[in-house]
UniProtKB/TrEMBL annotation:
Species: Prauserella oleivorans
Record flagged with keyword Membrane: yes
Phylogenetic classification of the source organism: Bacteria, Bacillati, Actinomycetota, Actinomycetes, Pseudonocardiales
Official protein name in the record: Uncharacterized protein
TM stretches of this protein: 9-30, 45-66, 73-94, 106-125
Key words of the record: Membrane, Transmembrane, Transmembrane helix
Length: 140
C-alpha cells in the first residue's frame, strides 16, 4: 500500500507533536532526585532519567520522519524538540523558568540534540550516497 503526500504530511505533523510532548515531559522530569518523594531515597542524588529518554527517542523520531517521502524532513522533529525545550524552558508555564542552571540542562540539550543531529546527518548522507550510486549506475 502506498502513502499519499497528504498522509506523509499528517504523519510528519504527528511526529512533530510527539517531539513537542516528549521535550516538555523531559524538561519537567529533569529535576528528579533520589530523595524519597517520587523515587526511593538514595542519598538525595540527582537522577536525570529524562536525558536517557531524550537520547533514545529523538533519533527514533528523526529516523521515522526521514523515512517519509523526503529525507530532508528528518530535521522537523529535532527542530520541534529543540524549540520546545528552549521556549518552555525559558518562558515556562506561568512565566517560570523551568530550565535548571546546572549540568543537567546541558546534559539534556546534548543528550537530545547530538543523537538527533547524528540521525539527521546519517539520513542525509544515506540519501546522497543512494543518489550517487543511482547516477553512476545510469552512466554504465
Amino acid at each position: 500500500m502506498t502513502r499519499t503526500p497528504a498522509a506523509d504530511l499528517v504523519l510528519l505533523a504527528v511526529l512533530a507533536v510527539d517531539a513537542v510532548l516528549l521535550a516538555a515531559l523531559e524538561l519537567f522530569y529533569l529535576p528528579l532526585r533520589l530523595d524519597g518523594l517520587i523515587l526511593p531515597r538514595v542519598g538525595d542524588v540527582a537522577l536525570p532519567v529524562s536525558v536517557l529518554v531524550a537520547m533514545v527517542t529523538t533519533p527514533l523520531l528523526v529516523s521515522a520522519a526521514a523515512r517519509l517521502g523526503n529525507r530532508r524532513l528528518g530535521f522537523v522533529p529535532l527542530a520541534a524538540w529543540l524549540l520546545t525545550l528552549l521556549v518552555v524552558g525559558v518562558t515556562g508555564p506561568g512565566g517560570d523558568t523551568v530550565l535548571l542552571a546546572d549540568w543537567r540542562t546541558l546534559l539534556l540539550l546534548a543528550g537530545g540534540t547530538l543523537p538527533g543531529a547524528l540521525a539527521v546527518g546519517g539520513t542525509l548522507g544515506r540519501a546522497t550516497r543512494l543518489a550517487r550510486e543511482a547516477q553512476l549506475s545510469r552512466r554504465r
